[in-house]
Amino acid sequence: MNSPTDYLCRLWQSDSGNGPVDTSDLLRELQRRNNSFDRMIRRRDIREIAGGLALTVIYGLMAWKAGTLLFRVSDIWLALCGVWIAYYLHRDSKRSLQPIPDQSLAIYRQSLMERYDGQIRLARTVKYWFLLPLWFGLLLQAVAALPGPRGVFKFSMVMLVATAGCAFVWWLNEGPAVRYLQHKRRELAALIGDEGGAR
Amino acid sequence: MRSGTPTEASSQQARFLSLIDEYKPALRRLVNSYEYNASRRDDLFQEIALGLWQALPRFRGESSERTWLYRIAHNIAISALDSRRRRESRELPLPDSMERAGGFAHPDGALVEDEQRQMLVAAIRELPPVDKQLILLHLEGLSYQEIEEISGLSESAIASRLSRTRDRLTEAIRHKEVRR
Question: Which residue in A44, A42, A82 sits closest to A62, CA to CA?
């Protein structure tokens, strides 16, 4: 008499896999998807680098034409911020790519979860790698404007706008963005059977 | 897939096509058990094929071809479900009469077996993800050692989960048969 396992295996394998596969169509589709994926990665990298470099070029030119040493220093600082932010995002996006699937199922599940952890970490540390350097650069600009005409007013306005802007971005990242990512992480954990829960 | 020379590229292509040819039935069964919606099954099949196509140049034969293939197929299936979940809210499964896991009509003699297979697929779809992956590998005839290599779980954990899952599937089929 056959065991229940034999029966299940035989039943399962008796399905020969319905539907033909047109291999030439499949190959064309694969090449198309592969190329479009490469293009997407390249476009994203170019966009990030271009954004950072634009900031660098603008403040680099301003530093070139700056009237005082303090303005020049603040412009150079903000130009370097552009390079730093582009580098940081580019480095992180490389880490956040879809994990390669030829690893064990357990490690792969863990890698999927870690992608969310990485994004949560990025949102939570935005104050350090993004806001603080920019805010400091703007503070230098505001201080540089102090000796000029209506210096105190300019200083106050720059600091008010810069601080409010930074506070808003900080709140956006630490509040709604982190909550959204945690929610998505919990959903993924439920889907793949991860027992770690939300972080 | 990036291959150095045209000869390498065509040999990779030939290897890929022979893989697809050999494992097509198993991959189709795997896709059936992950995806309720018939039109999405082709998409998932293509996703898996793309994953294999991209991973093939990295395959150095350190594991057997079939453990490598099943690892990729299951990982991509899980990822595809995650991506779809993010794109849209989860759909309810269609009733069996509208959405058959297999798809072809069978002559009368094979009807009972076909229906039992539908029940098996339906019961597998309801399993938790890890149990589903383990039982699919087991039903495809992989040894415990191969399943350990693919899943990263210990043999004892695999044995205990499989035993529980087999009982659950057998019971589910029996239960549905009684209800008919």
Answer: A82
Contact in structure between A138 and A159 (CB atoms under 8 Å): yes
Count of structural domains within chain B: 2
Confidence at residue A36, expressed as pLDDT on a 0 to 100 scale: 66
Contact B32 A16 (CB under 8 A): no
Q: pLDDT tens-digit profile of B7-37?
A: 777 788 888 888 888 898 899 999 988 888 8
Of B92, B126, B150, the domain-final residue? B92
Residue in chain A closest to B77 (alpha carbons) equals A101
Write out chain B residues lying below 8 Å of A7, CB-based: 170
Residue B173 shares a structural domain with residue B111: yes
Q: What are the residues of chain A with a beta carbon less than 8 Å away from any beta carbon of chain B?
A: 4-5, 7-9, 11-19, 21, 23, 26-27, 29-30, 33-34, 98-109, 112, 184, 187-188, 191-193
Q: Which of B92, B124, B155 is the last residue of a domain?
A: B92
Q: If you measure CA to CA, which chain A residue comes closest to B64?
A: A102
Residues B71 and B113 in one domain: no
pLDDT tens-digit readout, B121-159? 888 988 888 899 899 999 988 999 999 988 888 999 999
Residues B88 and B132 in one domain: no
Lookup: tokens for B179 = 């209800």
Q: Are B57 and B1 in contact (CB under 8 A)?
A: yes
**What is the ipTM metric for this complex?**
0.73
**Contact, A140 vs A73, CB < 8 A?**
yes
Contacts of B129 in chain A (CB under 8 A): 191-193
Structural domain boundaries enclosing B164: 93-180
B81 vs A: CB within 8 A: yes
**Residue contact A193–B130, C-beta within 8 A:** yes
Q: Is B34's Cβ below 8 Å from some Cβ in A?
A: no
Q: Phi first, then psi: give them for residue A55, nearest 5 degrees.
A: -60, -40
d(CA B51, CA B71): 11
Task: Report d(CA A175, CA B37) in Å as an integer.
Answer: 36
Tokens standing for B123? 């019961």
